[in-house]
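[09:14] KT: can someone run the structure on this one? pasting the chain below
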Amino acid sequence: MTSLQPTSEYRFGGYRLDAVARKLFGPDGEPVHLSSRAFDTLLELIRHAGETLSKDYLMQAVWPDVIVEQNNLNQAISSLRRCLADSPSAPRFIQTIPGRGYRFIAPIEDAPSRESSPRPIRLPLPRVWHALAIVLLLALGAAVVVERDPAARRPQADAARVLDAPLPSSLAILPLTELNAPTDDGLFAAGLHDEMIQQLARIKSLKVISRENVLGLAQRGLPLDEIARRLRAQNVLTGTIQYLGERATVRLQMLTPSSGIVLWASSYEVDIGKIDDLLAIQSDIATNVAAALEAEITAGEQHDIGTLPTRSFDAYRYLLAAKNAYYFQDYAQTWHLTRLAIGLDDEFIDAHYYFSYVNVVLTAVPLEGMTAEDHLRLALASAERIIELAPHDSRGYSLRGAALATRGDWEGVTREVKRLEAMGVPLADMKFYAPVLMSLGNFGGAIEILEANLMTEPVNLYGRGFLMAAYEMAGQPERARREYLLGEELNPIWWGDTVNVFLALGRNEPLRDIDQLPIPETLKSLLANLDDRDRILRALREFRAHPRKMSAESVYYAAIAAHVGEHELAVELMREGLENVWLSFHWLWLPVFDDIRRLPSFVQLLIDSGIVDHWDRHGWPTVCRREGHNVRCDWRAYDVDVLAGTVLDRPRVDR
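[09:31] RB: done, structure tokens below
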């Protein structure tokens, strides 16, 4: 029997399995707890429903990089049968084929469309707009992975040519494999994984791959060497957890995938309910890993490694749940959980970090009962609290800069950047500043930062999408196309699909992958029918009259208006979209808005944004100049080769 095409959801016998959220829901709609390996086993069986899968095949598929006993598979099958109320003698779902393996025998029902599918979490605002909520998603390099049928991929550029060289002293820490069902819903495993990354990232002589980048690939079931290649990680740390009541055995191993050489291995016995045990483990791990990699640790770094993030275990658990919600772009839940963590411990720096950041994101799509200004005020307050508690921590200044950018306080952002430079923060870690430079017309500086960031975070798909836009703004469409093809190979459904729509509108090229965009069906339909001018104009008028419009939504409609020649309307829509998120100004430098930059209304918008005043203070970009009391911005007035050389070969970052 032919295997099912991979999808995000499967339904069988009243159950629903969400492959993206990695959750199983029972007939009553409530989540059914499964260990990560049991879930992987069930997913593999379902994807090959009707086929007999050998035990060797399942062991390789579910435990590809871990040497374990076959009893682990037996435990996973037994756990699944208990959770599904299935019987080995009279199976409804999983049938044992003696001497051969297992077979999933229940019919797989057709899943409803993505729009009509019930979701385990509901947001107070339409979730489709969170992918465009605010360009500052780049600040954390979030990269949510949505897998598609590999056979459906188009021929792409060869990503190996830019991803083949591992970064020296780089380390990827993979999620820990739970060998049996945990008693705490897996929070200890998630916490230990997160803390190992956090603590080792404090050591500046190491390059530790971010949690978001690691999770995005680890959940796709790729071989260990392929994960390392895509992350450009020289070394990889893997581990398992075996639970026994409130105790657990943690076994860790660090190796170099290219050679197979094990650099360090150890095991720990811990109480999963004690934060002191968690601290002792992660501190010892960080010290030993650094020693194995011959990394230098300063006295300050050693002190930070041995310091508890919080004395409140409940606050710590709230933050773990918040990070998980953030990974799945549930910003409302992230906001509520981090707020609870801060309420329990106002000195919990990591909780303030996530609370500040998620409030910056929510300025574009405020929570019900709140305004953009409310979120901005909270973002700044938590950033200030981090600076007060840890003045040596660059995150506080980065967050303050990100919040000031949404307000259009370009001078304030410049001050924060100078402070970060004085602290010795690498260019790659100033990624929040790249959209600021794009807004200010300094495309070369943005490209410099984004390229540096992608050297250390090659699967930062948000960063690659913005690099596409920066190249296009700098008159380098072929480089933009190359980055798009690389992003498509790394992940077929990604932020670059959205950016590419704006680029294609400016190039007058056919739009691609419209169905994959995280936008309402009404907008998809408009993009698919751009030649129907009457329909487009009617939709633009209806949207213009809508009393409450989100920033991200206005940007799309403004681009459509500009594309069909409704230039004044495009300026009006962008002004409304920028009202609470001035950092979105960078969209206006894309070619689709070429004609509107000639209008007096655009010049007035440019002046109102504060950008002209910033240019007067710090110098004007190549593409704009003063003409008396007027401003002229016109790419076509310049020689493309001269523009490309000025912007790309000698990038300037305001110091």
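[09:33] KT: thanks! The first strand starts at residue 9 and ends at 12.
[09:34] RB: yep, looked fine to me
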